[in-house]
Design brief:
alpha+beta; Rossmann fold; Dna Ligase, domain 1; 3 domains; 30% helix
Length: 469
């Protein structure tokens, strides 16, 4: 049985939900339904949408929003935050190491083939230390809670993690519609994220910066699935939103076009993938990046956040070694454990996975957004056979994990509260210090019994409350 975050096994209400339950019992179903409709209208007017790649109806969609907050006590959050900070420290140390001495490879802990043959490993970053020594300035760590009431890391998002705008908008919507709930509960803030983000980015300005730090957000453009978030964060930070065509190299700096002419940028928060970042170095056909930006970067003329080459930390085969990586760089066992993982590149693991495909979740090592994966218990026999053929053809492209009984939290249905499965993406900012936002983006599987929480696969979101201790 999955762990119910609101109710105990005997039907009692857990302490974190006490105030909410007392409030909810006084509400009328019709009033809450109207509030749900009002929330949808707010999101539609604000333009909080996303695109689904490859969908026939690929028009922008609203992410469904559930009114019932997910509530985490301060006592539950404290060890979770400690584990996240430890993991982020280890990830940055790992990235520095693999682009320098590769001590973890020479120690025989991470196989060299996972680095050398990895498409996310950038030889252009070898020997280069980013400003402030920070590789992953913005990280999203996907967390799940299982039936034994334990938190596990499902995956790391160290390249260009998305979803923080939904976290902020969810909170602002809840505060607007239910101010009395916030008066009754001591909820830690998340709405100050843009201010923390700006401060964190300013703290890693390059050596060429000799005045107030000028920051910009680089977007691929309006057709990107996360364009709303790019525009939202730029607006909330009070910085410019730019595309590659707005930028050029001027006197050894990257400068953006303005009404005052071209002005140099100190820190570029890029939401463009490595392959498209610099057509002179990577994909020569890219129209999204900036010619020459890698030279400027390596000469100390600009900070790129997140650093090029961080995508290797997102690799799910690398993920499987994270307990050893944490131990190697921090000298301590990982506070947050990984979900058990089979590396399909290993013959014994591949044999086991092929024999148990109907029980497992199989993911591409570079996959994201729920694409390219198999959820064995929900797949047909034909889908399993097709996926088995893919596995045999390219086993190194996949890892497998058990089908987890994700914890449940209540959502609002026509019949009242009903449990649904969730995960959590807390966001971490790394600059001069490490800042963990208390809460994050809770994604919820809206269909009864479903374990798929990705918005691109039909999931929704809800506000995440971390209570003061």
């Amino acid at each position: 049985m999955p762990f119910d975050e609101m109710l105990t096994k005997d039907g009692g209400v857990r302490q974190a939900y006490d105030q909410f339950q007392s409030w909810f019992q006084l509400q009328e179903a019709k009033s809450l339904a109207l509030k749900a409709s009002e929330a949808e209208g707010l999101f539609r007017r604000t333009g909080i949408t996303f695109n689904v790649y490859g969908a026939q109806d690929a028009a922008e969609r609203l992410i469904p929003f559930d009114l019932v907050p997910r509530i985490i006590s301060g006592q539950e959050w404290a060890p979770l935050a400690e584990g996240i900070e430890q993991r982020v420290q280890a990830l940055n140390a790992f990235l520095h190491d693999i682009y320098h001495d590769q001590e973890i490879v020479r120690a025989g802990i991470v196989p060299a083939r996972l680095i050398e043959g990895n498409e996310a490993f950038l030889p252009q970053m070898v020997g280069f230390r980013p400003p402030g020594g920070v590789y992953t300035h913005i990280i999203g760590v996907d967390i799940v809670r299982t039936e034994e009431n334990r938190f596990y890391v499902l995956e790391d998002n160290a390249r260009t993690p998305s979803g923080v705008s939904y976290m902020i908008e969810n909170r602002e919507t809840m505060m607007q519609m239910f101010p009395e709930l916030f008066a009754q509960n001591r909820v830690r803030p998340v709405e100050n994220y843009p201010r923390h983000l700006r401060r964190s980015l300013a703290g890693v300005a390059p050596s060429a910066c000799n005045g107030p730090v000028r920051i910009a957000v680089l977007t691929p453009g309006i057709h990107n699935s996360a364009y709303y978030e790019h525009a939202f964060l730029a607006d909330q930070m009070g910085v410019e939103l730019v595309e590659g065509a707005d930028l050029m190299t001027v006197d050894g700096r990257i400068a953006m076009r303005t009404t005052q002419g071209y002005l140099p940028i100190d820190v570029l928060y890029r939401r463009v993938d490595d392959a498209y970042l610099d057509p002179e170095v990577f994909n020569p056909e890219s129209m999204l990046g900036v010619p020459g930006i890698m030279d400027v970067y390596k000469n100390g003329g600009i900070t790129i956040a997140n650093a090029p080459g961080t995508g290797i930390a997102d690799d799910k085969a690398i993920y499987s070694y994270m307990p050893e990586i944490v131990q190697f760089y921090t000298g301590r066992s990982a506070i947050l454990e990984n979900v058990p993982t089979w590396r399909c590149t290993e013959a014994d693991s591949l044999a086991y996975v092929l024999e148990h495909l109907d029980e497992l979740v199989v993911k591409e090592v570079h996959g994201s957004g729920g694409y390219g994966m198999l959820v064995g218990p929900a797949a047909s026999k034909a889908e399993i056979e097709l996926f088995a053929a893919k596995l045999r053809q390219r086993p190194s492209n996949y890892i497998a994990q058990p089908t987890l009984a994700l914890s449940t939290v209540p959502i609002l249905t026509e019949a009242g509260l009903a449990p649904r499965h969730v995960d959590l993406r807390p966001f971490v900012l790394v600059g001069e210090t490490i800042k963990i936002i208390p809460g994050g983006l809770t994604r919820v599987a809206l269909q009864e019994g479903s374990l798929v929480v990705n918005s691109s696969q039909g999931g929704g979101t809800k506000d995440t409350w971390v209570l003061e201790a």
